[in-house]
Amino acid sequence: MTDPEVVLRATGLVKRYGNVVAIRESDFDIRAGEVLAVVGDNGAGKSSLIKALSGALVPDAGTIELDGRPVTFRTPHQAREAGIETVYQTLAMAPQMDIAANLFLGRPLRRGGVPGLLRMLDHGRMRRQAAEQLDALGIATIQDIGQAVGALSGGQRQAVAVARAAMFGSRVIIMDEPTAALGVRESHQVLELITRIRDRGVPVVLISHDMPQVFEIADRIHIHRLGRRTAVVRPSQCSMTEVVGLMTGALRIAEDGTVAEQRLGTPNRKEGHI
Ligand SMILES: Nc1ncnc2c1ncn2[C@@H]1O[C@H](COP(=O)(O)OP(=O)(O)O)[C@@H](O)[C@H]1O
Ligand SMILES: [Mg+2]
């Protein structure tokens, strides 16, 4: 059955690196209008999961659907063409280039001209659109669009990466630990940006370690453990301690939808939802 609210769905994803199983028959879904947090221990497979959704790796098995239609992404370019933008942990910026050039990295605007011939870059239009985009997202921390990205603070650089995703991501925006390297104030600015993007109608996948942050911003929490989604919960119906327990496997969601102790020696293969 297809749920009209689901924008991006994955079913039964598998990814192996030699003997390591990074994604173990995992499911995933994100719905219109939401911030979906993805939490899990180091090595649980969060980054691998979002790489599979954004074309940065090709899964060994499983299916992905966008707006109810099956899709196959063999490269990040194909996922971007479909409207899925990803902010990776490494940010992928050109430090010596300015902010405007980084916003249009890999897809620059060119002047009109004879089709088929190499047309000149339209720096003026890129600068204007870059400034408009930062303004629309309320990014006030950047004053000069002509500044080299290498000269920016960590938070400013993150803001540029998020602005770039928001500029081109029409269906889903995925962010892998966007605040991991930031201070409290800068983290808050990124969270505000995420809320603004969601309010503009584009759902956001947020991978984060920071439980208070997750509880502040997420509409639903996808809990990842040992390569697969083990539970999906709503922050309003669950405590941080319970989410951590589900993450580490100390707790499970019982048949009746309550959070219970994990029984020793029973591998929890069934997903729980509350
Ligand atoms: N390129 C790779 N080559 C080999 N093993 C990898 C690679 N990427 C991830 N892994 C392994 O897959 C597992 C999941 O990693 P990852 O998706 O990065 O988890 P997380 O983001 O939750 O920390 C880990 O055991 C990790 O060592
Ligand atoms: Mg990771």
Question: Could you explain the architecture of this structure?
Answer:
The protein is of the alpha/beta class. The protein has one domain (6-273): Rossmann fold, CATH 3.40.50. Helix content is 29%, strand content 26%. It contains eight helices and 13 strands. It has helices spanning 46-53, 76-81, 99-103, 123-136, 154-168, 184-199, 211-217, 240-248, and strands spanning 6-17, 20-31, 35-39, 61-66, 69-71, 84-87, 172-176, 204-207, 220-225, 228-233, 251-253, 259-261, 272-273. A seven-stranded mixed sheet has the order 6-7-8-3-9-10-13, sandwiched between helices. Strands 2-1-4-5 form a four-stranded antiparallel sheet, covered by helices on one side. Strands 11-12 form a two-stranded antiparallel ribbon. A hairpin with a 2-residue loop joins strand 1 (6-17) and strand 2. Helix 5 (154-168) runs parallel beside helix 6 (184-199). The model has no long low-confidence stretch (mean pLDDT 90). It binds adenosine-5'-diphosphate (ADP) and magnesium ion.
CATH fold category name: Rossmann fold
Structural class comes to: alpha/beta
Helix content: 25-40%
What's the total count of β strands?
13
**Count of discrete structural domains:** 1
How large a portion of the residues is in β-strands, by DSSP E?
Answer: 25-35%
The radius of gyration over CA amounts to 20 Å
N-to-C series of helices and strands:
EEEHEEHEHHHEHEHEEHEEE
- Can you tell me the CATH architecture? 3-Layer(aba) Sandwich
The CATH homology group name:
P-loop containing nucleotide triphosphate hydrolases
Bound small molecules, by name, code or SMILES, are: adenosine-5'-diphosphate, magnesium ion
